[in-house]
Structures are given as C-alpha cells and as structure tokens.
Records
---
Amino acid sequence: MGSKLVVVGAGGRMGRRIVALAVESGEFEIAGAVEIGGHPDIGKDAGVTAGIGAVGVKLTEAYPAGAADVVIDFSLPEGVDATVDYCAANHAALVLGTTGLADEQRAGIEAAAKKVPVIYGTNMSVGMNVLFNVVGKVASMLGEEYDIEIVEQHHRFKKDAPSGSALTLAERICEATGRDFPGCIVDGRSGKEAERKKGEIGVHAVRAGDITGVHSVMFGALGETVTVGHTATSRDTFVRGALRAAKWLAGKEAGLYSMSDVLSIS
C-alpha cells in the first residue's frame, strides 16, 4: 500500500473527490476521514459517500489514533487549528488548501512547519501555480503605466471573497512591482467618486451557479489590454494537484513548502 492518508473535510465536495481519486491512484491508503460534528454522513463509510464503494474507514468527528503519513485538509477555517495540532503531535505531513484563514492561523501553520513538512497553498491546480509564477513577471515587463484588475469567478456556495487565489495573484504582482500588499488592493468599486488611483489593483469577486473557478488578470494601457488567466473546469484538477503534493511531501524534512517546490518551479 501507499502512504497512509487522512482526509479532513471528507464529506464535502472536495473531500469526497480526494478520497475517490486517492484510492483510484493506488498510491494512498485511506487511514482517516474527518468531518465536522453534526454532518449527516458521520458514521458512513468514506468510500461509499465518495461513490467508490466501501474502503473500511468511516467518517468521524475525531482524528484517527493510528499513525498517518500525510493529511490533506480542504475544509473550513474553523477546523484548521485542530488539523495543524494533530499533524504536529503525530508527525504527519500536511497539505492544506483551506482558504480564508486568519493571521493567527497562518502563524500556527508556520510554527507547525518547524516540526513537520507543510504545504499551504490557496490553489493546488498545476496550471494555476504556473500562473502564480508568471503574473509578477508580466507586470514587471509591462511597467507601471498598465492598470491591473483581477476578476475571480466561483460557485454560489463559496464563503470567502475575494478568493485566496486572487489575493495570491495580487501578492505576487506586488512583490514583483514594489507595491504595498494588501494596501494597494481595492475590493470592487462603487459610488460617484470611484475613479481608479495610480498603482492600485482592483479585485472583483463573482459568485454564480456552479462555476468551478475562473481567474483573469487584466493589464490595461491606453491602446491595448493584455489578459492572462486560468479556468478550472473540474474540481478534480485541484484534487490531483493536492494528491501530487501529498505524494511529494510525505517523508520530507520539516519545513514550509509550496506548490512551486512540488512542481520544481524556480
């Protein structure tokens, strides 16, 4: 069998696909399936809820007592602290894709990374991580005369806005161009005096239907517009990226890693 994997948020849309594709890959053994108390699928077999047949592991509110090689958490911010504590106490690697975290939680992740290997990413898609890598370079090459606007689109159920990926795009641009992050960010615009100010980055959130994820970065000057972006057509792209990260991370030395490390992006 492969690495022993604990899936946190295993009853959610992402969690079910993580369980299904992890088993399909043949590279992981499901060692635990954790869900928030009161979830209607608590007590059911995680494989059954994922639509792949029984795997012999039930959804539980408690983290498993046995050893785990790696944990993947795509749950909600309120559950992240327990996941981080579990990984630190059990020497399990952590792949964390939950967005909307508070500063205190980010500090907790950094502290845990001194004990165990951790990857925290706002987007586990391989293509999106390539975009993270190039967007700052595009901004630098175009120069300060180009206005920058980021538009992100997601399904109606997404809780946080703007998306973590949109903020990561903005942060990478700021790092490359010397802008203040997050001070230069404008979350949408309204009113009669909403003209853009030089150097600001507009970030706009769309929530509609079942949109999996669309991110566009527009660089506009007088006479032309350059647009770079990424469209996810299935949640499986995030799941496959997370599983790739989990396989890479298991057994690594303690430290805070990124998808760029997984993909060997320099």
Note: The chain is about 35% helix and 25% strand.
---
Amino acid sequence: MKKYLAELVGTFILVLFGCGTAVVAGEKVGILGIAFAFGFALIGAAYGIGPISGCHINPAVSLGVWAAGRMSLKDMIGYWVGQFAGGILAAWILSMIVSGVAGGYNIGASGLGQDGWGPGYQGGYSMMSAIVFEFVATLIFVTVILGSTQKSAPSGFAGLGIGITLVAIHIFGIHITGVSVNPARSLGPALLVGGTALAQVWLFLLIPSVAGIAAGLLFRTKTLEAD
C-alpha cells in the first residue's frame, strides 16, 4: 500500500503543478514555462518518492515496466489505482483554486489544462497528428525511463534525465495535443472539464498505453537492454 500511495502523491504533484502552471500562469510563462513545470515536478517527485515506488506516476510507464518483466501484474494494477486517483485529485484541487479568481472561472470554457486536438484546440492539429505524436513521444519517454533505470545505468541520475526528457517532449508537443504521454495526467482534467475534453480522452488513454507496452517489449526482448 505504501507504494501505491506514493504513486498517488507523485501523480498529484505532476498534474497539479504541470496543469496548474498551464491554467494559472500559461499566458505569462508560455510553452517553455509549462514544459519546465512538468519536468521539474517530475524530477522533484522522482527524488521524493522514487525510493518507495520507483516514481512511475504514469500508467503507460507502469505498463512498460510490466511488459519489460520488471513488475508483477498485481503491482501494476495497484500503481494504476494510485496514479489515476492522484490525477483526479489534483484536477479537483486545481478546480477549487482557480474558481477563486476575481470574476469567477468557467471550467467548461477555460479548461484545466486538458489534452485534445482539432479545430479550436492549440494549433488545430488533426487526430492523426495527435496519434502519431503521442505514440512516438510516449515510446521515447518510456524508453528513456527503462534505459536509465536498468542495472547498468549510472545510479542517482535517472530522475534528472527523465525530467529533462519530459521538458523536451512538452516544448515540442504542447501545440499538438497539450502533451499527455500519461493517461492519468489526461483523465483527471478531462473528467472535470467534460464535453470535448472527455470525448477525446480515449486517445490519451489508449495511445500512450500501447506505446508503453512497445517500449517495454524492446527491453524484454533485450533489443535495448544493456548486456
């Protein structure tokens, strides 16, 4: 239970500070600021809860770790429960914070940093662009995680490398999908915003998960596993 609770806390940190920065300060800090908020939140969580759970804080990462043969199915499901609960709780807390702004805040109209695609969302990219980006970005992200945490990797630096990778992914992809690469990060805001965000969340649940499994298999088959 300690591991599952740690995953809840870590996912809460990632979603609250990442999506919170996008919602509250996005116009002031821009893409770079939002990207660094997600990356730095991940780095902080990695060193805070990493010794307890490994700091997956992402169902796609847990799928990759399971597919690589590094965790049991039971633990993966427990991690998922903690991760999705953390993402939903963070979105709820964020909604409470922004609702106190002068003049009020319309969550349906202004959102909670939810992911999406198509006309009216960020750069207006197509669903196919969203699928390709989310698959490739998640594949790279989970590959970096599995590679930097394998036994032969330098110890103590994984959190930093993973966080920097997440920053780079956000700089590239915020205008495409808002960047998910993490089903728990996407589901929380979508549930509270509803409408189009909830109708499109399937893509951010499915595609990163498939990519996570693909990355895990690259390590399970020793294609990328160090000798």
Note: Residues 2-101+113-220 form a domain with the Glycerol uptake facilitator protein fold (CATH 1.20.1080.10).
---
Amino acid sequence: MKKQVAEFIGTFTLVLFGCGAAVIGGLGTGPTAIDVLGIAFAFGLAIVAMAYGIGPVSGCHVNPAVSFGVFMAGRMTMPEMIAYWIAQVLGALAGAAVLYVIMSGKASGWTGGLGQNGWGAGYLGQYNIVSAFLFEAVATFLFLVCILGVTQPGAPSQFAGLAIGLTLVVIHIVGINVTGVSVNPARSLGPAVIGVGSNPAALGQLWLFIVAPLVGAGVAGAMFKSGLLAADRA
C-alpha cells in the first residue's frame, strides 16, 4: 500500500498548494496578491518537492494521465495503474476538501471557487472548446515527453524532479488563461466535485479535462513504447 499512500499524499499536496495559490493568491491585494507566475511556480514547486519526497517510493505520478502514459510506455501494469488512479483521485478530493475548509474561514470575498478548470464565456480568457481541448492534449503530451524522457534508463535521474517541475511551470505560464491548466484529471476532478455548489459548470466540463490529458499522455507513452523517443543504448 505504500505506493498508493505516497500517490495520495503527492496529489493532495499538488491540489492543496497549486489550487490554494490560485484561490488564496487570487483574492489577495497588494503584497499578498499572486499573479500567473506565482501560481505557475506553486504547481511546479509542489511537483519538485513531491518528486524528491515520494519519487523513490511511487515515482511521483500524482496524475492519472502520467500513470496512463507510463502504462502505455510499458512501464507499469494495468492493475498498478488503476490502484494509482484510485489513490490520486482520493488525494485530489482530500486536498480540495481541506482547501474548502480553509477558505470557509475567510470573513468575506470568497465565493466558493477552488481553482476549477474550465473554458468558454465568463472563464478567464474565454477560449472555446477547441482551444481548450487542443491545449490540454498538447500540453499533456509534452509533459509526458519530459517525464518519460528524464526517467528512462541512462537519463540523469537526479535532476528528473527539477526538470518535471519546471516543465509544469512553463505549461501553467502559457495555459492558465486558456483553461486554468489541468494536464491532470485528478487535479480537475477534486475542485470540481468539492466546489460544485459554487460552480456547477465545472462538473459539466470535467470530461474534457479527463479525455484530453489521457489522449496526450497516451500518444507520448506509445511513442516511447515504439522506441521512437527512447534513448539509444550502447
């Protein structure tokens, strides 16, 4: 069970700190405000911390799309992937629930948002569904290219956590205004379910943040499985 416990803790941390930066920082003014760069680094640094904290235990997937990409690359079995998925979803729900309780203690200004992902009229840059799907699929593909690349045999594994975290940072810098950035079905599911009372639309749009990341991750995994992106071995 220790791999599942590690994945639960890692996903919990990502949602609590990443979405927490968006929600708490988004309500701040002056020196307490956090802009797009701050939110991007919150997500990325959470991954860096967990990569070195739980990476030796579970590989620090903390993302069903990452586990799917690893599965497609032939690096884990389906039962292992499903066990990871369950732990990741539970961790995301717990992280969103703790963030909800924290925000419930704010005297005023909070309307119930938990950093839900979305698209369309009224959501951040108001990008349409095509833009949202394309960004999530392509960004997840590139994220998995980094993850599978730096964790393959022969790669300098001591820098893997840093490379993966910084990749997530740049993905957020580019994509926050498009979808709020998911590239992680669990990260989207937790806030959408726990915060459904304040934003029912997020639950209705959740399918895109499940399907698009899995598509992108699956393509990346298949490319590594085929050897197209695998490093040559001496």
Note: The domain at 2-106+113-226 is CATH 1.20.1080.10 (Glycerol uptake facilitator protein).
